[in-house]
Each structure stands twice: as C-alpha cells, then as structure tokens.
Design goal:
Length: 510
C-alpha cells in the first residue's frame, strides 16, 4: 500500500514536471527550427512547423511574400546534412498563454555579417507545439550588439511605497511620488525616508477604502512645471469623490517644503459616477509649454455604453485627451471640435490611456492605451485626432455581442504599435541618458500584465524593433522615469512598492 504522503508527493512532482515540460516542449519545437536551419536538416525544420504554416519573408524587390513551410525547409537540402553551415541561432524569449505562444529568436550568419530577429507564433495542436507562422527582420549592423553589450540589471533603491503610480524628481536625491493606495509623498533616496505632503485636497478617494468594489482610485500622475525652479508649481491628477461618485481631477499647487499651498483646480472630468475604473490621469508638458492630460472613459464593459459612446461624445468629458495652459485656461490654437464640445479637447476616442510622454528629439507626444481583450496600443498624439474607441479596436470587446454604432464621415487614427497579447502599458518615457548608449532615443514602456518592460527602437514615427526586458524577473511596473542626471528608474505596482534603479552591469574580466 502506497502511503498518502507518497501519493501526494508523486502528484505534486507530476504537476511540476508537466508545467516544466510545457516550456521545454515549446523550446524543443523552436530548436527543431534553429538546429534544422543551422545543420541542413529539412526534415527537422518541417517537424517544427504546422503543415499548413506560412513564413512571411522579404527581399529587396518584395517587402512581404509567403513561403509554405515545406518549401522553406527544402532550401536547406543543398548542404551536407548534419554539417554546420555557418548559421547560428538562439531563443531570446518565450511567452505562453494557454495553448498559444509568441517566441523570439536571434539568427546570425557570421560569414555574411547578418543578424536577424525571428518572431514565431505557435499553437499546441494535438498535444504538440507547432510553429504556425514566422516573420523575420534584418537588423542594422549598429543594432547587432544590443543583446550582448547592453546588460541592464535592477537595483532596489527605495521600498515601502503603497502602490506607487508616478515619480517626479526634484533632484538626484529627492523625488515626489504619488501612491495609489496612500498619499503624495516626498522621498529621499539617500536617507531612505518618505514624508507625506500636507494640504492635499480632502476629496481624494483612495483604493484602500473601496477596494471591495474593484476600485482603481487614488493619486495618479505628478509632474513638475517646466519653470519649477522659479515657481515651485506641481500638477497632480487623482480620483476625486462627492455624493454622486468619483471622477478624475487635476490640480496645480505650489510646493513649499512638504506642504501644498495655493491649490487650484484645473480640470474636473465630470460626471461623477459609481464606475471605479479607467480614470486615465496621465500628464506631460509638451515643448510648447502646454499641459496634456489623458482622461479615461470610466467603463469596464462595452455593454454599458450609451447609444453615442462616451469616448465619441464631444459633450462628455470622459475618454478624451486635453491640452491646457499651465493655469488651466484653454489655448487659442486648440482644435475646434464644434460649439457644443467640452472645452480643452485635443483628441478623442480614448478608452484607458495612462501613460503620456514627450519625445524630446522630435517634439511629438506619445501615449499608451489599454485595450480590453488584447488591443493594447502605443499612439502618437495628433491635433484633433479620433483614436476610434469603441468603434474600432485592435483587440476584442469584453461584451461578445457588442455592436458599436456606425459614425458616418468620421476618420480614425491608427495606432503606431499594438500588441497581440495583453500588456496593460502604463507610464512610458524616451531614454536620453548616457549609461546605455545604444538605448538613446529608445522608447521604454512598462506594463502591468505579467510585469512587462519593453524597449522600442524608434525611427521618426515608426517602431523598428521591440525587445522585452527582464523576462526572467517580471514585476508589475507602473512608471519608468529618468532623474535629472539621466539615471533610469522604474516604479513597481505592489503593496510594498519599490523604486528600482535600472543600471548597466559592468563586464567581468576573466
């Protein structure tokens, strides 16, 4: 008779091995492709692919053409089977979601000084992982060392924050941090102390008191005035409440030591409602000195949309991006949305944009957007643009039977980038520091889902390359920011929230 404890041990071991083998099986499928193409073994290449799979390839006179997997495998029957052909590859990342997965590999052909990045879409079919699609891009020679010469590592420099949302550096030692579950605080990275600022408006609704309702309230963005050294003005967005519910509110205040004074309300995104989602609250100053603000549409499910969806209704303050003067007045050169539109509108069709940032090299403003089921996006802000929600989306609706109205004569602006899986992108930033020379001008985008942190190489308005960082050390990330000296930091979205320095790992000489 087998003892119960032994049975439990065997069951737990089997569960662990099954979970472990899932990734191992997927890795074995990818290695069939990598090794098959490196050692002239067409049969092994075919084994990696679903028999109806296509590869999306390119050549100088044809940007995209399809090649069936069997035909592609036949290209590797010219060399001696089993003999290395000078092509090498390695798996960079694997992202599994139930029976589908996305993987990335690096392929190097040293003799021709070529480096490719391959992206694979895989599916588990009849118990086996198979590649169902593949695309590749040729990397520029100056990008060839990105994976090997730039080695970012994390260093916790502060902890004990209550779900921090945003950080604004006063200098290299001190910063203001907004806590979604707490207060607006001043932290000192040297003494490891934090002090709550007094004078914050009393209509703040934080997440702790109302968490049972699925609330996402609290203090959101904090930014400094471009002329902060002279006027000490700061700008804060937060969830405000009254007897009717809650909404997004933006204030300006003067920072005097650890006290807020001269508090002035700049925007109240009424109506106040009982919905406790998607406040938005992202803020940034443009090169024009204007304040740009994201306001979410506040709904969780599309089934609750009115006949004219909130984000498309020009008389509703929700689901929009605003452009204001620093004192809250409306710039004269704002786009004209019509006589009955709410004041301050700059763009419409927004669902749940949290992150918004300036690209200092171009003056463009970029923002992140949460989808529902997939549909997460990166957009470039354009004057008067309509980003389409909920009429169009790159993802799916939560309400499977939702049929958005047709808005005749309305044109929509496509995203610059969108993911095929959920990322929940948040507070993005363009890197301009010196510590990571190959990252200069890159866009860094954190995410809440699965603890993502992405690095994008941007050329003009086009994203040319995407890399997910720290795939072996994931943590929900709410914001990435630079200090005045260009040091890179990230905020973790946890009960014991942390400020993490992302620094370069110095090479070890053997």
């Amino acid at each position: 008779m087998i003892r119960p404890i032994l049975v439990l041990t065997l069951l737990l071991s089997a569960t662990y091995l099954n979970a472990q083998s899932e990734a191992d099986q997927l890795r074995a499928c990818l290695l069939n492709y990598i090794n098959g193409t490196s050692y002239n073994q067409p049969e092994q290449i075919e084994k990696a692919f679903y028999d109806k799979a296509n590869l999306y390839l390119s050549k100088p006179d044809e940007p995209v053409f399809l090649v069936p997997a069997k035909e592609y495998a036949s290209w590797f029957n010219k060399g001696k089977p089993g003999e290395a052909n000078g092509r090498t590859g390695k798996i960079l990342s694997i992202d599994i979601s139930n029976d589908i997965a996305i993987a990335k590999a690096e392929i190097v052909i040293a003799a021709r000084d070529l480096r490719y990045i391959d992206l694979f879409l895989l599916k588990k079919l009849e118990g086996e992982w198979k590649i169902i699609s593949k695309a590749a891009t040729l990397m520029a020679k100056d990008a060839a060392s990105i994976q090997t010469t730039t080695k970012p590592v994390k260093e916790v420099v502060f902890e004990g924050l209550l779900h921090p949302w945003s950080i604004a550096f006063l200098n290299e030692e001190e910063a203001l941090v907004s806590e979604k579950d707490g207060q607006l605080v001043k932290v000192n990275l040297t003494t490891k102390t934090k002090t709550a600022l007094s004078g914050f408006p009393e209509d703040l609704i934080d997440s702790i008191r109302v968490r049972s309702r699925g609330d996402n309230s609290g203090i959101f963005e904090v930014v400094l005035d471009p002329d902060f050294s002279n006027n000490q003005h700061i700008y804060v967005s937060y969830a405000a409440e009254n007897e009717m519910g809650a909404t997004t509110k933006v204030i300006r205040a003067k920072l005097v030591g650890t006290k807020l004074s001269q508090v002035k309300t700049l925007l109240v995104a009424a109506p106040y409602t009982r919905e406790m989602y998607h406040y938005g609250g992202g803020m940034t100053f443009g090169q024009d000195g204007k304040l740009y603000i994201t306001i979410g549409e506040r709904l969780f499910n599309e089934k609750d949309e009115p006949p004219m969806p909130i984000a498309q209704n020009l008389q509703d303050k929700r689901g929009k991006i605003y452009r204001l003067n620093p004192d809250g007045s409306i710039p004269e050169d704002n786009p004209d949305f019509g006589a009955n539109s709410v004041p301050g509108l700059y763009a419409v069709g927004i669902r749940a944009a949290q992150g918004i940032t300036l690209n200092p090299s171009t003056g463009q403003i970029w923002f992140s957007e949460h989808g529902t089921i997939q549909g997460d996006e990166i957009n470039i802000l354009q004057k008067g643009a309509n980003y389409g929600w909920p009429i169009i989306t790159t993802g799916k609706y939560r309400a499977p039977n939702y049929d958005p109205p047709k808005l005749e004569g309305t044109s929509f602006t496509d995203p610059t980038w969108y993911w095929l899986h959920t990322v929940a992108p948040t507070g993005l930033t363009f890197y301009t520091g010196e510590e990571f020379p190959t990252w200069k001008g890159n866009l860094l985008v954190p995410g809440l889902s699965r603890g993502s942190l992405w690095r994008f190489i941007v050329e003009g308005t086009t994203i040319k390359h995407a890399e997910e960082l720290f795939v072996d050390d994931r943590v929900r990330c709410r914001k990435v920011r630079q200090s005045p000296a260009g040091k890179l930091y990230m905020l973790t979205d946890e009960e014991n929230g942390k400020i993490i320095r992302i620094r370069h790992q110095e090479p070890i000489n053997n």
